């Protein structure tokens, strides 16, 4: 009993909403944290291409999960993970590539990750700039039925055990598209300006907060 209790996410208070979060953030206040935000929209079809963008602000130096898309067969189907300052890991279908990034002083970090099955190419953009592309999971298809959350790293569909990989800080401007954004639109995402429509987007986000995460105005 005790073991199975530890393996599932705790039952936390839940707040559901659908709203325009422009100029707002999710504030993850606990460190470490058991808290997370479930994103409700799922892709309608399995994915051969996708782009995920988000902006984060934290002074954590330990590992943390930002965006976790788990399916029944693969918990790391899509995962944006920061194992330490100076590195991002991008998982698709359970395998990952890493991107070395500057260990900047405390700034908001905007990242976009894009993947194309046909060539197995991963793009990584940070603060509007493309990194050298890498290869991952050529020919793979990402299943549509997924549990998508922010602020934790799932170890199975809808579940995580390890608050050591939890996010603490501020998260904003989360988007997912079922295609690759053009370079022009990647830069638009960085500026959060004139983005293509999508079912999972910050301007009309369907989400459920689990635990102690609050929506606050962004500090400018
Ligand atoms: C994925 O993108 C490629 C081009 O990069 C395109 O040929 C293909 O039709 C796209 N697949 C889907 C399902 O949209
Ligand atoms: Ca995992």
TrEMBL record:
<feature type="domain" description="Pentraxin (PTX)">
    <location>
        <begin position="22"/>
        <end position="220"/>
    </location>
</feature>
<keyword id="KW-0479">Metal-binding</keyword>
<keyword id="KW-0964">Secreted</keyword>
<dbReference type="Pfam" id="PF00354">
    <property type="entry name" value="Pentaxin"/>
</dbReference>
<dbReference type="InterPro" id="IPR051005">
    <property type="entry name" value="Pentraxin_domain"/>
</dbReference>
<comment type="similarity">
    <text>Belongs to the pentraxin family.</text>
</comment>
<keyword id="KW-1015">Disulfide bond</keyword>
<dbReference type="InterPro" id="IPR013320">
    <property type="entry name" value="ConA-like_dom_sf"/>
</dbReference>
<keyword id="KW-0732">Signal</keyword>
<keyword id="KW-0106">Calcium</keyword>
<feature type="disulfide bond">
    <location>
        <begin position="53"/>
        <end position="112"/>
    </location>
</feature>
<comment type="subunit">
    <text>Homopentamer. Pentaxin (or pentraxin) have a discoid arrangement of 5 non-covalently bound subunits.</text>
</comment>
<feature type="signal peptide">
    <location>
        <begin position="1"/>
        <end position="17"/>
    </location>
</feature>
<dbReference type="InterPro" id="IPR001759">
    <property type="entry name" value="PTX_dom"/>
</dbReference>
<protein>
    <recommendedName>
        <fullName>Pentraxin family member</fullName>
    </recommendedName>
</protein>
